[in-house]
Design a protein that fits this description.
- The chain has 408 residues and is of the alpha/beta class.
- It folds into two domains: 184 residues, Periplasmic binding protein-like II (D-Maltodextrin-Binding Protein, domain 2), CATH 3.40.190; 197 residues, Periplasmic binding protein-like II (D-Maltodextrin-Binding Protein, domain 2, 3-Layer(aba) Sandwich).
- 52% of the residues lie in helices and 13% in strands.
- The protein is built from 20 helices and 13 strands.
- Strand 1, helix 2 and strand 2 form a beta-alpha-beta unit.
- The termini are far apart.
- It binds beta-D-galactopyranose.
- The site of beta-D-galactopyranose (GAL) has 11 residues, from loops.
- Beta-D-galactopyranose binds next to loops.
Length: 408
Amino acid sequence: MVPTFKHIALVAALTLSAAAHAQKAEVIHWWTSGGESAAVKELADAYTKAGGTWVDAAVAGGENARAAAINRIAGGNPSTAAQFNTSKQYHDVIAEGLLNDIDTVAAKEGWDKWLPKPIIDSVKIKGHYYAVPVNIHNPTWFWYSKAALQKAGVAGEPKNMDEFFAALDKLKAAGLTPLALGGQGWQEFITFYSVLLHVGGKDAYLKFFKDHDAASVNAEPFRKTLTALRKLHGYVDAGSPGRNWNDATAMVITGKAGFQIMGDWAKGEFSGAKQTAGKEFGCFAGFGPTAPYMIAGDVFVFPKTSDKAAIEAQHKLATVFTAPATQVAFNNKKGSIPIRTDIDSSKMDICAQAGVQALKDPARHVANPDMLMTPDMVGAVQDVITKFWNTNQSVDDAVKALQGALKG
Ligand code: GAL
């Protein structure tokens, strides 16, 4: 058959749409707060600049977004990429053969040379890279409003838990909300493991999360942690239940609350409100200059597909996300630290610089709970903590319930 003009036009149109399709990437993520949206826009803009088409699939709430990604994979209609935490959250999906590896990009860009070891351990499974890490977060930071602390007469940063409680008392007496907390399971869980790490200590934290050692739960450091957690509840306002984390950050930004214990994604909200670290707000990653520094963060995985165009889009995403310029622009807005160790950190704010310093000292590193436990066990522990936080359950009963959760 001699091709007619109509045929040629049709073929041209198909070729064009294939080229456009080659660049199209649907990305599931849970970055919906002000700071998070500004940060993910940097990733989207960089992808667009590189010739791609970004299809934004934001789902509010980490648990919801991860469930949506897994449901799409299981239903045979996966997105091009999906966000998870730097952890074991996606290891089952790898074991089931449902993710594409990203080895060619990793080799081309030299990931082995500049990715920190704890991150590699979470994304490189049996010798293959299955996720592109985009940042390093530490979920256990303390944030405070300088204006609120001044109003309450708190002189300096608390250097231990007793001083922290003394500061909370002063804030309470000044009529402010001492501790801003969003009463959602994952935020209560962060409060718990921050106290375990910074009050119970690194050993107690590791015995529990890494060794799953039931006896350690009844030992003094752990009981002290639960007692401190119970006491902290007395410093949270009545509006806490169900509150979003960024609304809790807003209470610190406006000086209505003194402190928030939250990951450094909170910094994205402070910078969105044009506040500067060290000026309107302060930060400390635990008590004292050698406090353990928790390593967490975000990655994107690439669901299995044999569609050549989709694989090209996956490779382009991984390349663009890790490019030095994207890393700087994205992490500045996100409040996190770049995953590349070959980036100049001198222009970062003082909290990020403290983080970079801590990361240089492997003795301070500690893996986050999701790196150390399966998602099921994390879920069981979180449920116990939420019950303990929201009821009058005794420390003895919480100890028993946590020992039960460790049995898996
Ligand atoms: C974490 C994630 C952060 C931040 C936070 C709140 O799981 O690592 O990037 O977005 O949730 O949404």
